[in-house]
Design a protein that fits this description.
By secondary structure, the chain is of the alpha+beta class. It contains six helices and eight strands.
């Protein structure tokens, strides 16, 4: 895998998050604090400083994600239209006999409901299958997160099961529902699948 990677489709762009995005990123995050708070991953008490993970600045986050991307373990994309509106991250990239990854994302509330997130997730998944040659991609979604559940529904992802206390979200361990897709399930790709489902 080579990094950086930029993908564009129908006015939606996935590109590397850059240090110069700091101001725009902070503005979007501040404007969406209440919108995103119930779904944001948090650091559990056992991993907090001192002796655990140290909170990072935007610059440290970008540099750390770039290192992970160059090592082939992550695809940390900024999600943009005419401006930065969120992030899409492919994480947990595993090769060998597993060949899988998960996709996480967030979007500015002002850009939600316009089909941007499903398209961006489809773009990321297609890249995982077509370029990285992964076998499986999954989304893990809080059962209460109706907007994210609609993303999985629009893409036609298969619901696989319930994961109790799967991720630390908004200060506590939260249950998630897992949705997945395999490389051979939609031979034309998830973007084609999405368009076929939204035009009928």
């Amino acid at each position: 895998m080579t990094w950086p990677v930029t993908l564009t489709d129908d006015g939606v762009t996935l590109r590397p998050l850059r240090l110069r995005d700091g101001r725009a990123w902070r503005e979007v995050r501040i404007a969406n604090r209440e919108w995103l708070k119930p779904w944001d991953a948090t650091v559990p008490p056992e991993a907090q400083h001192p002796g655990g993970e140290v909170p990072v600045s935007f610059g440290q986050m970008v540099r750390r994600q770039r290192r992970e991307a160059l090592a082939g373990r992550m695809l940390p994309w900024a999600l943009a239209t005419d401006r930065l509106v969120g992030q899409v991250t492919v994480g947990g990239i595993t090769y060998g006999s597993v060949r899988s990854a998960y996709i996480g994302y967030w979007i500015d509330q002002r850009a939600a409901g316009r089909g941007i997130t499903p398209l961006a997730v489809a773009m990321a998944a297609d890249y995982c299958f077509d370029v990285l040659r992964l076998h499986r991609v999954e989304l893990n979604i809080r059962p209460e997160n109706a907007a994210s559940l609609r993303v999985a529904e629009k893409l036609g992802l298969r619901e696989e099961g319930f994961r109790p206390s799967f991720l630390h979200i908004d200060g506590r361990w939260c249950d998630h529902v897992t949705f997945a897709v395999l490389a051979d399930e939609f031979p034309g790709g998830l973007r084609a699948r999405l368009r076929s489902r939204t035009t009928h």
